[in-house]
Here is the input.
Amino acid sequence: MSSILEISLPAVEPVDPVGELTSFLKQPAGTPDAALIKTLGIAARRQLEDMLGLTLANRNFVQYEDGFPFFPYFQSPYAPLFGAAFPFYFGYGPVASYPYPAIGGLQNQMISPFEKRLMRSPVTAVQKILYVGTDGKTHQLTPGVDFVCDFSSQPGRLTPLPGQRWPIGILGINTVQIFFSAGYQATSQQFVIEPAIWEEELQVPQYGYIIDANDNVWVQTVAGTQITGTSRPAFEAQPVGGTIAVDGLCAWTNYGPVVGPWVAGQALLQPTIVFDVNNNLHLLNVADLTTAAIEPTWATACGVTTTDNGVSGAWLCLGPNQPGEQNPSNEITSYVGDIGIPEQFKIAIMILASHWYYNREPVTPGTAGTVPLSVEAIVQTNRVYDFGPIPS
Here is the structure.
């Protein structure tokens, strides 16, 4: 079974209630209905999300599963025919496309039977997967390192690495948790996901990074946006703390591997790199630090600092946690697009909010008729159909 919870509210609504929506309703600035107009804008956006099956305002979610997808025929009497030697399902790959019938067949028209689809679209980031292993402990999987994310599909998809399968875990209620972000931005905004891999003549901003084959994070230290050279430096030959002074117009410092997620009450020394709840990397920016009891409000832009436990500038944001050199060479990891909300959706939000603003009764006065897109429409799109037994 799959279920989902919203774990954050949108930072920005796709329709500004003070400017756009108030103007659309032909109300004056500072109208006494300002709070009502704001509520109507949010409600209209949520109603359209329910009707469209799309997330119109970007926010964070956690999707719960009762286990990972597994081999679909494990209980079949034919299962021994497809044992661990069956490479497509059990992984000695990556492997080339395995031939299968045009209709039916083991894969049931799916390239991978281990595919997991996310319940909100469009997906803009996948932070992590937590699962309960056979040892009864919680383990973490990192996108691009332990599994593949498809950001171009609606719904977004997750699969194991090419030729592999999901780890063996416990089957039980909500034993797998998928943390991800989905939704459009309020304005036109480029959506870029690229692996942190060195390329020749690559533009790299100050505090941008790459990850070498030893899993070490190299941070570009020259101010401004610089361009790498035409020959890859010998990153792997340098120890943690080492530097590469000249790479085209770039210079690099090795800050070691990502140690893991931020943990409360932990004593840390430089160099340390952690990732936050939003899956952004942060470099310890002071000589030593004991982290706070409560996770800080993290900076999200590259080069911006975060205060932790009262220490100003304790962490320096390096941007989204991207996979490095360890990615399989045949795995698609780069996505570029625009995730600004389409204009027709903004118009739909304003029209629906206007309809509710000027039609405040669920029935037409003087008749037995109901007002369209009113209470009944809201109830229909949010009704929970449960045919299970009633608890005694």
